[in-house]
Amino acid sequence: MLKIKSAEFINSIYDLRTLPKSVLSEFVLVGRSNVGKSSLINCICNRKSLAKIGSVPGKTRQLNYFLINQDFYLVDLPGYGYAKVPEQIRAGWRKLVEDYISERENVNMVFVLIDSRHDPNYLDELMVSWLEYYEIPYALILTKSDKISANKMEKQIYRVSKIVNNEELCLDYIPFSIITGEGKQEILKLIETKLEENKKNN
Ligand SMILES: Nc1nc2c(ncn2[C@@H]2O[C@H](COP(=O)(O)OP(=O)(O)OP(=O)(O)O)[C@@H](O)[C@H]2O)c(=O)[nH]1
Ligand SMILES: [Mg+2]
Description:
- This protein is of the alpha/beta class.
- It has helices spanning 37-44, 87-103, 122-133, 150-161, 184-201, and strands at 7-13, 25-31, 63-68, 72-76, 107-115, 138-143, 170-175.
- It has one domain (7-201): Rossmann fold (3-Layer(aba) Sandwich).
- Strand 5 (107-115), helix 3 and strand 6 (138-143) form a beta-alpha-beta unit.
- The structure holds guanosine-5'-triphosphate and magnesium ion.
- Guanosine-5'-triphosphate (GTP) is lined by residues 31, 33-39, 53-54, 57-58, 60, 79, 143-144, 146-147, 177-179.
């Protein structure tokens, strides 16, 4: 099993022209504000505050790069869909994220986080449709699983599966919680498998 031996914050990117020049694989986290992206990074890296847990949701406007094991990056994308964000900023988010997804060749796979207490919204759907259009593999992570029953989770997985059109690109559905640790091993396993695939192909 993949062991996280080192994890460090590298930088925040506001402008895609300043992306790292490296050829390391990037594993990307996307999802609504407050869904738990930063918490997931801290949890899988066994760190309390590597990624900042936002006190003000919707404030993150940048891509945050974390270098793991000197081998790959975790990339925390700005959260979308926070109601209080003005339309102009939302349009900026769309451009930044879609340009990144479509142009960045190092993107290995994307974790799309959806709060397990809520149905996916049109921005989750839009994200999945971009990933499918650009043929980027992704996994759907149902976050905060500690807040719902196993029964409810099963139903929620079904509802989330409705936004998937290309099942070959959707690698997995993973219930996840930072409280119980559910899903952590599955996420590490996915990363490990992808890294191994890469090494074989290079
Ligand atoms: N109960 C529970 N709470 C969680 C879990 N994951 C995250 N949270 C809480 O949800 C809130 C938002 O978490 P963040 O990790 O900051 O969410 P984010 O997606 O990074 O938010 P933005 O950076 O604003 O886009 C915090 O108060 C977390 O403590 C979980 O698995 N269970
Ligand atoms: Mg965050």
